[in-house]
Design brief:
CATH class of the largest domain: Mainly Alpha
Structural class: mainly alpha
CATH architecture of the largest domain: Up-down Bundle
Oligomer: single chain
Strand content: under 5%
Number of helices: 15
Distance between the termini: 37 Å
Radius of gyration: 21 Å
CATH topology of the largest domain: Growth Hormone, Chain: A
């Protein structure tokens, strides 16, 4: 239902959901549409044969993590529209820098700025939904939004691949610029301010610092932030190296978007399964079981890969094993993503706004360098990736046990 103290928006419910989903999906589109282009970027920037092109993904996510620290508190103090405008402006500047970059450091700088900007749409959009809806109505809106958010990673590499067929990798940034401008204009024209002055509070650095210290000192929140950061670090390692795996390891560069879509659908299936099971078994039990299964499956697969008999297998059997492993891993990681963040937020109801920003930023700041470590170990095989999944899953089990004490 619409919140009793909320101003009824002029926009219709279907259009509101579509607008929120478009803003939310800008993050996934900015990351996943770039994946098919990493090989071309490496050649263009004279870094072919190295793993440097992977940083195009990692720097975007690192900027996203840093940006999340600021937009939540700013939107509580200045309303929702101005921080969203600022975020889009920063994203557009980053996109233009990427479009005209002629060196790898220049491109990575643009990607970091893109991440800083897109954090505004990612964080403040959730606050807009919270301003207007509550209870089951809010859950309904977010369900529709998350459905789109799950589908975008499935189709984004296909979009990127399609653009590459007709133009170079820079055209992907042109498409991102056009998409962000359309969404920005749509938002500016159709959605009014949802956080009026009487509900705002003054921006206080002291209040934000105290909230940060409280979260770090809270064993449950901090432990689950670390656990989520470890799991997402393994996922970033996958995103960083997956294009090379399909191109170099399995020689399936053209097929990559379709197999990536299949793996993304495993995340969607996990979200639906989690929604049905979490009320029955609880977040802790589901997360604990998912972590144990992920650690065991990854460790077992790593041992199989290291056996001499695995080295003698042909490319097709290895690819079949890899896809089966990734589908299982993605399913259980899909259960972990939502639950670990919710567990970190559980003790923070009294500082929910700032808490959401710090939890999101903390997870990203931990996961980005961990993902880079995994990605940079790529050596033409899938062994570094599987080892990263196994090691980070085991560390995450330890962090979760520490948090639950």
């Amino acid at each position: 239902m619409l919140r009793e103290d909320a101003t009824r928006p002029d926009i219709s419910f279907p259009e509101f959901v579509a607008l929120v989903a478009a803003m939310f999906s800008l993050v996934a589109l900015s990351i996943d549409a770039m994946l098919p282009a990493l090989a071309e970027i490496a050649i263009s920037m004279n870094v072919a044969g190295t793993n440097q092109a992977q940083l195009v993904v990692a720097m975007m996510l690192f900027g996203l993590g840093i940006g999340q620290l600021f937009y939540g508190p700013l939107s509580d103090s200045y309303g929702r529209r101005r921080p969203i405008y600022v975020g889009f402006a920063v994203f557009l500047v980053g996109s233009i820098i990427c479009l005209f970059a002629d060196t790898m450091p220049g491109l990575l700088t643009g990607r970091f700025i893109q991440g800083l900007g897109v954090a505004g749409a990612r964080i403040v959009t959730v606050a807009v939904v919270r301003d207007l809806f509550e209870g089951r109505a809010m859950a309904r809106v977010m369900s529709f939004v998350m459905t789109v958010f799950i589908l975008v990673p499935a189709i984004a590499p296909m979009v990127g691949q399609g653009i590459l067929l007709f133009a170079g990798w820079r055209a992907i940034f042109v498409a991102l610029l056009a998409h962000s401008l359309v969404v920005l204009i749509w938002f500016a024209i159709r959605l009014d301010e949802t956080h009026p002055p009487e509900r705002r509070h003054s921006l206080s650095l002291r209040r934000n610092w105290r909230a940060t210290v409280e979260i770090i000192r809270n064993r449950q929140s901090f432990g689950y932030i670390v656990a989520a950061g470890l799991i997402f670090g393994a996922f970033i390692g996958f995103l960083s190296s997956v294009q090379q795996i399909f191109d170099v390891t399995f020689d399936r560069k053209i097929e990559f978007p379709f197999w990536f879509a299949l793996m993304s659908l495993a995340l969607g299936a996990a979200s639906l399964t989690n929604a049905k099971l979490v009320m029955r078994f609880g977040m802790q039990q589901l997360s604990r079981n998912a972590l144990y299964i992920s650690a065991v499956v990854s460790t077992a697969f790593l041992i199989i890969l290291l056996l001499p008999i695995s080295q003698s297998l042909g490319a097709i059997p290895q690819f079949v094993m890899f896809m089966a492993y990734m589908m299982v891993t993605f399913f259980f990681f899909g259960i972990l993503f939502g639950n670990l963040n919710a567990l970190a937020m559980e003790p923070l109801g009294h500082i929910a706004g700032i808490g959401a920003s710090i939890v999101g930023a903390g997870t990203s700041i931990i996961s980005s360098p961990l993902g880079v470590i995994v990605g940079q170990q790529f050596n033409g095989t899938i062994i570094p990736l599987v080892a990263g999944f196994a090691f980070y899953s085991m560390l995450s089990i330890w962090a979760m046990k520490w948090a639950a004490k």
